[in-house]
Amino acid sequence: MTRGIGIVAPVGVSSITVSNGTGGLNLLTPSPREVWRAAAVGSSNIDIDLGANVSIDTVFLGFTNATPDATWSVATMTNSSGAGLSVVAGTRALRVPGPIGQRQHGYLRLDAPISTRYLRLTVTQMGSGAPLQAGILLVGLTAERPYEYRAGRVALDLSKRTELVDGGFGINPAAIVSSYRFTLSGLTDEQVEDLWQIVMTVGESAPLLIVEGHDTLRFSHLHYGLFQRLEPYEREEPEDTRWGLSIRDWG
């Protein structure tokens, strides 16, 4: 597991093909509420064409209803028909531990980047639950950067409340989402330029994935959403730049 902050800007996906079910293209829309639904409990393939050979090391299959024993694996291919299948991550549990609510995330970071154009995810929903559904498929290359330990989350309650004359409250309930603020530190000039390219590509309107730096990965460490506040970086001395950023989770 990463010790620094992992910043994953998605690479472009040229096309996606699912072996069964409906709404395969919904995996590529930014909203996790637009989902792909498998046709039945069991195994499904998700084939991805990145359009050209690119370097990647991270796959995120988010906002799923995976059962506790659901599994997935990842392989490369030499064409979109499944030729030259080569497994890069064998069968493993799909769910990241510690889910909050009913949604589950699948997250995989390879030990080293690979270069490929075609990927196949094989996902298997087990048990007597509903067929698998998923809202987000994100593939990218993680930029891992050191950070200061003052980083932390805040819960954002989007509900509206009105104080009533009798001392009570009128509540219009809405989602409770999270935000995560962190300060990268000790950045070299090259790392600043790499991060600058990411910031200038996604801005505050395109989604990305932020992974908190912990020894053991948990559901709450994964933040899929939009940069919330793009502060200026501070170059304190050569090879030592600080940059404070925050992400608002997509609920």
Automatic annotation (TrEMBL):
Residue intervals of the F5/8 type C domain: 1-141
Annotated InterPro entries: FA58C, Galactose-bd-like_sf
Record protein name field: F5/8 type C domain-containing protein
Protein species of origin: Blastomonas natatoria
